[in-house]
């Protein structure tokens, strides 16, 4: 463009020389030097359109978008929209004035290929993915140049965004995944569909392609390759987190942060994901990580839903760190931005609950449910949970029953019946069953135009209602439900058996009539191997002894007895001083105090004499302390293993030699010992 301007510029020799300099610098990519020459030309002719265009281009190439846009806006008479539309729209796009860029493109008199390319980028930033997809399809169809691969990459990015943020099932575009960018975008689309294992394989392929592509350039270092792979590794860690592999995900996230990538958007997403892993734990680390989400320019790198998720997590982190005012401020700001969103009001209610203001939290949720009926179901479920936490189960049931769209759901019916049973309100529980069954009857009738087939869910509810009524003694009410089930399936023996059991308590004659419908035992083929069942692991077969066994049975029992291994009884150990010639003491099993020959202990006699008198003196009882003199005297109680003792004590027999035979027993006195540290008294 500058070469054309140089050719078109004629005039004085100095101007021609300047234009030649501009042309040469432009071809060499030296736009800073070219800008100096253009400024000299504008000093000669300040309204030269070509010179102004060249100046805008030089400023854009040098990254001075704001100055370039200022020149365009100050020379609107000379630089009309049909001349400078692309440059103006591009400056606005790079300055993140996306709406202005869109207006500039749409107001252009002629839609050039450059404007169409920029139009696709603008639509992507505005998250108008359907229009963006159509724009790129048109570009790919009508363009044939060296940028075709980049357009296909952008097209795949749009499809991935639709799958992730709008939950749209992506169509097969038939793109050949020959580059790591295409593989990465395909993996993102699979994540949006919940196909995590397939997405991981795509990311691994993208990593391999990226390494191959970058390793071909000798100027690229290993650090450069790792920096390029950071976004792929970040997505891998996200898949691990979704799969519950939080430790692996956390390790990979921290590795990426250590690389210090220049992409502030990537750092913000990783920091946010680490905070979600930490939750209410490791709050100090979360406080450090949240600073990465506040970096300059993050709002221009992420989608609206990503930014919203980060703000929600900031509010939750403030709640976990007991910053109540900050939490309320953030949640209120979020609610003003998205009045119909559930999370802001739920965060506010959670903060009130942490402050023990449960009634205020319930009131806040009730106001939101009244203002936004479309989201009332989720809010009322939360209200019911708060009521249960307060112990108001009946009020929780009332709130749950007010959710009309969930009344007939099996899960809701089960929850209500369980809660009413806990409160012993059987009538209300049966009423819940009845309302749900009636809803299914009306729904089925409207779908089948008056016919009366029962859906599996409907029949399941009837059966559960019948079982519940039988359990709580409502036999007559249960009978009608069982008859309805049997009517739907007359071959159902289980239902028939239940019906007969219920009638047997209410109308025995009717039970007898119905019992005729039961199949006979001959028709029932019970293929049960009794022997195998008895011999199976864990089977407990108790054989009753019925007198003497005769004939074959006796032989069979004897045969079985032969097979059994007899356990050998171990011989009891005898005392070391056991003498088989001596008759055992019949009272050996009794305590010493209870034996007939026990004379009692001489309390305090020797104890009082020990240590009396002056040092070295002897007492009259000192001879009693001499063990050599007392050895020959008869002991107060017999010594079990001493033969001399046996001969010395006429009829005293050593203990532990045989069981007692009618020895007199006296009541054992229980001596209470005080525990250490225990107080006296009762």
TrEMBL record:
TPR repeats: 230-263
Molecular-function annotations in GO: 7S RNA binding; ribosome binding
One Gene Ontology CC term in the entry: endoplasmic reticulum
Biological processes per GO annotation: SRP-dependent cotranslational protein targeting to membrane
Location of this chain's protein in the cell: Cytoplasm; Endoplasmic reticulum
UniProt entry keywords in alphabetical sequence: Acetylation, Coiled coil, Cytoplasm, Endoplasmic reticulum, Isopeptide bond, Phosphoprotein, Repeat, Ribonucleoprotein, Signal recognition particle, TPR repeat, Ubl conjugation
Repeat is among the record's keywords: yes
Compositionally biased residues, Low complexity: 628-645
Broad class of where this protein is predominantly found: cytoplasm
Family, per entry: Belongs to the SRP72 family.
PANTHER family for the chain: SIGNAL RECOGNITION PARTICLE 72, SIGNAL RECOGNITION PARTICLE SUBUNIT SRP72
Protein name, entry field: Signal recognition particle subunit SRP72
Biological source species: Burhinus bistriatus
Gene symbol of the encoding locus: Srp72
């Amino acid at each position: 463009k500058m070469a054309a301007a140089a050719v078109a510029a004629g005039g004085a020799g100095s101007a021609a020389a300047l234009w030649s300099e501009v042309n040469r610098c432009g071809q060499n990519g030296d736009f800073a030097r070219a800008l100096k020459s253009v400024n000299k030309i504008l000093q000669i002719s300040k309204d030269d359109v070509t010179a102004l265009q060249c100046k805008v281009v030089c400023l854009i190439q040098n990254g001075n978008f704001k100055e370039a846009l200022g020149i365009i806006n100050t020379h609107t008479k000379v630089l009309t929209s049909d001349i400078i539309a692309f440059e103006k729209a591009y400056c606005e796009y790079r300055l993140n004035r996306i709406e202005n860029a869109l207006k500039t493109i749409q107001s252009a008199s002629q839609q050039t290929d450059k404007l169409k390319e920029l139009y696709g980028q603008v639509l992507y930033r505005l998250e108008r993915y359907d229009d963006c997809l159509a724009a790129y399809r048109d570009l790919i169809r009508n363009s044939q140049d060296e940028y075709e691969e980049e357009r296909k990459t952008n097209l795949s990015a749009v499809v991935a965004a639709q799958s992730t943020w709008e939950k749209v099932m992506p169509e097969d575009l038939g793109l050949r995944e020959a580059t790591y960018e295409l593989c990465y975008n395909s993996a993102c689309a699979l994540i949006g569909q919940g196909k995590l294992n397939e997405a991981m394989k795509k990311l691994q392929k993208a990593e391999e392609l990226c390494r191959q592509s970058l390793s071909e350039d000798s100027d690229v270092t290993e650090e450069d390759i790792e920096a390029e792979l950071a976004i792929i590794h970040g997505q891998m860690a996200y898949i691990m987190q979704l799969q519950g592999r939080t430790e692996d995900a956390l390790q990979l996230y921290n590795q990426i942060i250590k690389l210090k990538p220049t992409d502030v958007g990537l750092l913000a997403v990783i920091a946010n994901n680490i905070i979600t892993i930490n939750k209410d734990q490791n709050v100090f680390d979360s406080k450090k990580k949240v600073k990465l989400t506040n970096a300059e320019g993050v709002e221009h790198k992420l989608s609206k839903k990503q930014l919203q998720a980060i703000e929600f997590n900031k509010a939750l982190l403030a709640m976990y760190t007991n910053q109540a005012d900050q939490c309320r401020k953030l949640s209120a700001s979020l609610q003003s931005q998205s009045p119909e969103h559930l999370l802001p009001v739920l965060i506010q209610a959670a903060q009130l609950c942490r402050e023990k203001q449960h009634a205020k939290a319930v009131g806040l949720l009730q106001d939101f449910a009244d203002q936004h009926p479309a989201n009332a179901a989720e809010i009322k479920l939360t209200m019911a949970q708060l009521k249960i936490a307060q112990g108001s189960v009946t009020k929780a049931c009332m709130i749950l029953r007010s959710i009309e769209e969930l009344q007939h759901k099996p899960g809701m019916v089960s929850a209500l019946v369980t809660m009413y049973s806990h409160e012993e309100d059987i009538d209300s529980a049966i009423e819940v069953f009845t309302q749900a069954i009636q809803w299914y009857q009306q729904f089925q009738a409207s779908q089948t135009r008056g016919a009366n087939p029962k859906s599996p869910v409907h029949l399941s509810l009837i059966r559960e209602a019948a079982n519940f009524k039988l359990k709580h003694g409502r036999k007559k009410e249960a009978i009608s439900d069982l008859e309805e089930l049997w009517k739907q399936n007359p071959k159902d023996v289980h239902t028939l058996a239940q019906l007969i059991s219920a009638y047997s308590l209410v109308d025995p004659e009717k039970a007898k009539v119905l019992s005729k419908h039961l199949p006979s035992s001959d028709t029932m083929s019970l293929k049960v191997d009794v022997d195998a069942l008895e011999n199976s692991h864990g089977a407990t077969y108790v054989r009753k002894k019925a007198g003497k066994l005769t004939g074959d049975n006796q032989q069979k029992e004897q045969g079985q007895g032969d097979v059994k291994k007899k356990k050998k009884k171990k011989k009891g150990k005898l005392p070391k001083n056991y003498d088989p010639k001596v008759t055992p003491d019949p009272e050996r099993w009794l305590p010493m105090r209870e034996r007939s020959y026990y004379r009692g202990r001489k309390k305090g006699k020797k104890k009082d004499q020990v240590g009396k008198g002056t040092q070295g003196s002897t007492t009259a009882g000192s001879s009693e302390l001499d063990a050599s003199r007392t050895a020959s005297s008869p002991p107060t109680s017999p010594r079990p293993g001493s033969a001399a003792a046996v001969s010395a004590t006429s009829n005293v027999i050593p203990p532990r030699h045989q069981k007692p035979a009618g020895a007199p027993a006296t009541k054992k006195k229980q001596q209470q010992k005080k525990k250490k540290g225990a107080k006296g008294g009762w």
